[in-house]
Design brief:
By secondary structure, the protein is an alpha+beta fold. It has eight helices and 24 strands. It is globular and about 65 Å long. The structure holds calcium ion. Calcium ion binds near residues 101, 175, 177 and 319.
Length: about 375
């Protein structure tokens, strides 16, 4: 299915675009065109360089605006404020507040457990089936799709050596993930329950958590990933609203043991989103998000279970999406055929069921590797 068909009236994602010499503004996408929302809806909340002000208006408003956009575009494109997507520059769609990356795929966590802890009898740590494991990352290095990624330098321990060296990563990898955007947060001391999540969760985008495996392997004990991840993470330019994914809702895989009360869902729901990993124009893997163990609602409920506040623009990512098969893994280390070379381009794509039997697309998350700074 071509790209334009994946961005019909049942999709209507949000992004931020600019034309040469103009300030960035909020738009939606219809087919291969961007549609300026401040002009379409005569609303200044969209005449801004990020989605934050609109997201902060809350779910009732998100629903009203989605209805208004669909109505305004039902009879075709307006005369003004429409631009071919090839003519515009897309920007980071929102100001990223805090960023947390989970580790929600059982297949990925098991694969990585075997690689990083080959002598351990169980590839999963004892906590993994009890809570959605995560770490807090660096929001300032989230970049929009299309931004080049400079190969990071750092400490790594060469095989067979006892002392680390410093230099460009030789094991630069991808992590194909979904990023979830918090539209309205919760006050410190309160929680977001799994039932409340839909009032807070604005939308979804593709996310590539670039990972330097050699830096990560040496640094991560005992406090988790840091410089092996924090050099860059790529977010798709279009945020697909949660409302566009109603038809993509499915049950989650069986959870054993049963989740604790604050992680229980009634009804349980995950998302049937099919990811694709393209390396230099070749489809190398198709990770099925439907196989992911911990759901978005469980991740957000867990994030706030201790009373931690969230706020507009918080981003939490799923962790690498991997299915059970070798052509469904979301990272190169799991694939076992080598790592990224300078000049390589990785593009993540995804589609999902939309309303009325349609199929909708998420905006791609693309990035090309540039050589390390001398
Ligand atoms: Ca990750």
């Amino acid at each position: 299915m071509n790209d334009a068909a994946l961005f019909g009236l049942t999709n209507l994602p949000y992004g931020v675009y600019s034309l040469p010499g103009t300030a960035p503004r909020v738009a939606t996408r219809l087919g291969d065109d961007v549609v300026d929302l401040a002009l379409l809806l005569d609303d200044d909340v969209f005449a801004r360089p990020s989605l934050n002000a609109f997201m902060a208006q809350g779910r009732r408003r998100w629903d009203e605006v989605r209805t208004a956009i669909r109505s305004a575009l039902a009879d075709g494109l307006p005369a003004d404020g429409v631009h071919p997507i090839a003519d515009v520059t897309m920007h980071l769609p929102f100001e990223v507040a805090d960023y947390v990356d989970f580790y929600a795929s059982e297949h990925h966590a098991s694969n990585l457990g075997r690689l990083f802890r080959p002598d351990s009898p169980d590839p999963l740590m004892p906590n993994w089936r009890h809570l959605p494991v995560s770490y807090t990352g660096r929001s300032g290095s989230v970049v929009v799709s299309g931004t080049d990624v400079v190969r990071p330098c750092g400490q790594r321990l060469p095989a067979g050596e006892s002392a680390p060296t410093f230099g460009p990563s030789a094991r630069l990898d991808i992590e194909a993930e979904l990023g979830f955007v918090v539209g309205t947060g919760n006050a410190m001391g309160s929680t977001i329950t799994t039932d409340d999540v839909e009032d807070h969760l604005f939308g979804v985008a593709l996310f590539n958590d670039w990972s330097a495996r050699d830096i990560q392997a040496w640094e991560y004990v005992p406090l988790g990933p840091h410089l092996g991840k924090s050099f860059a993470s790529t977010l798709g330019a279009w945020i697909t609203p949660l409302a566009a994914l109603d038809a993509a809702r499915i049950d989650v895989p069986g959870q054993v043991p049963a989740p604790q009360g604050y992680l229980a869902m009634d009804p349980p729901w995950g998302l049937d989103i099919g990811l694709e990993v393209w390396l230099n124009g070749e489809l190398i893997s198709s990770p099925p998000y439907a196989t992911t163990y911990w759901s978005p609602a469980q991740m957000l409920a867990h994030l706030t279970a201790n009373g931690a506040p969230t706020r507009t623009g918080d981003l939490f990512a799923s962790g690498t999406v991997s299915g059970p098969e070798l052509d469904e893994v979301g990272s190169l280390i799991e694939r076992g055929k080598g790592f990224l070379e300078d000049g390589d381009e990785v593009v993540l794509r995804a589609t999902a069921p939309g309303a009325n039997g349609t199929r909708i697309g998420l905006g791609e998350a693309a990035g090309r590797i540039r050589k390390a700074h001398a």
